Amino acid sequence: MPGPAVDLALELVRLDTINPPGREAAAAELLARRLERAGLEVERHEHAPGRTSLVARLAGDGRRPPLCLTGHLDTVPLGGAPWTVPPFGELRDGRLHGRGASDMKGGVAAIVVAAERVAAEAPGPALELVLCAGEETGCEGARHLVAAGALGRAGAVLVAEPTGGVPHLGHKGVLWVNATAEGVAAHGSAPHLGRNAIVPLASAVAAIADVALDATEHPLLGGPTLSIGTISGGTVVNAVPDRARAGIDVRTVPGMSTAAVLEVLAAAAGPEITLTPWVDLAPVVTDAADPFAALCRTVAEEVVGVRPTPRGLSYFTDAAALTPAYGGPPTVIWGPGEAAQAHQTDEWADAARIEAAADAFAAVARRWGA
Questions:
Q1: Rounded distance between C-alpha atoms, residue 211 and residue 225, angstroms
Q2: Is 200 helix (H, G, I), strand (E, B) or coil?
Q3: Are 17 and 114 in contact (CB under 8 A)?
Q4: Domain residues for 67?
Q5: Active-site residues: which are they?
Q6: What is the pLDDT of residues 293-329, one digit of tens each?
Q7: How many domains are contained in the chain?
Q8: How far apart are CA 245 and CA 234, in angstroms?
Q9: Residues 305 and 335 in one domain
Q10: C-alpha neighbours within 13 Å on the C-beta side of residue 320
């Protein structure tokens, strides 16, 4: 039989929070009401209409600074391939199916149920839950919370992103850059009267794709990566396009600087291309010897039966915005979802692992507070 964390996860998956456009407000309100009933103080913050993030606090006994538990409420689109399971939620054969089951409504449900349990045992550890809109498109909700001064303080951060139930000690940073070429419009039958913006952009994209980023490989995160994620130009086939744009996705590791990466990209792209960074978030890494990291490994060993080895992630999380804003506390990424299921057709999560995560997060909070 499903437990309370799976029941809540199914409720969340049944809410369409696909980003774009987001519509996280319905999920945020569902969780806000539950957390308020549990005795937490809840603040709602919108970075755009209907794009609600939550900050919920449990005062605790004051013995330790709060533990931040964080996750995001939005999901990616369903994709073009047909689904063979209901995309908005079904529990079957021990699995929760639907968009967001793994990434990361199962993790959010585990956070909230763990917080409810800890609150019922008050006085106990202090908690700060940060449940964000807009993570999938560059941590918009988290960055808004930071800019608005909505965060309190945290002595440690636990991010419930999908990791297969195993704690990870960090993730790569991200630099998203728009590469833009400007041209002159003209009728398609007289291209000599214009200047086609697609042509220099195409050359630049080909050159950028061959760029080798110079960085020392990190023992947990590996090396940096570069991908061309989008390209667009023109409006109709019978007009010379006066603008073309490509989106570049760079995943960074410690020791890299944004200025150095942009310099390499500019050298490859050439003088006709304008590079504009629009998301720039640093890597997050915690020392394996940190007491909070050790605590998470110990609890995970009790839950999954295997002592995790230090490891990192290639994707980024809201911790890239939150952890620096909190002053750099130890941060662990650990959630019940399957990383391989993130953004996939027929996404699913193991129901038992979601319940186990709620147990584990509550145990981490209790021991952190002690």
A1: 10
A2: helix
A3: no
A4: 4-171+283-369
A5: 74, 136
A6: 999 999 999 987 878 899 999 999 999 999 999 999 9
A7: 2
A8: 10
A9: yes
A10: 28
How far is 107 from 130, CA to CA, in rounded Å? 13
Q: How far apart (Å, rounded) are the C-alpha atoms in residues 326 and 24?
A: 24
Domain boundary pick from 233, 253, 281: 281
Rounded Cα distance between 53 and 73, Å, is: 8
The domain boundary, picked from 264, 281, 298, lies at 281
Do residues 161 and 289 share a domain?
Answer: yes
The answer to whether 166 and 334 are in contact (CB under 8 A) is yes
Same domain membership, residue 94 and residue 216: no
CA distances from 323 to 83, 132, 221 (A): 36, 14, 17
Q: What is the DSSP letter of 49?
A: T
Sheet containing strand 331-333, edge to edge, reads 41-48, 51-58, 127-132, 67-72, 156-159, 331-333
Rounded Cα gap, residues 178 and 92, in angstroms: 42
Residues 6+ apart with CB under 8 A from 167: 293, 296, 297, 300, 308, 332, 333, 334
Q: Name 302's Cβ contacts closer than 8 Å, sequence gap at least 6.
A: 360, 363
In tens, the pLDDT along 120-154 reads 997 889 999 999 999 999 999 999 999 999 999 99
Co-location of 248 and 304 in the same domain: no
pLDDT tens-digit map of 183-224: 999 999 999 999 999 999 999 999 999 999 999 999 999 999
For residue 1, name the pLDDT band (cuts at 50, 70, 90): low
Pairing of strands 67-72, 156-159: parallel
User: 325 with 263, same domain?
Assistant: no
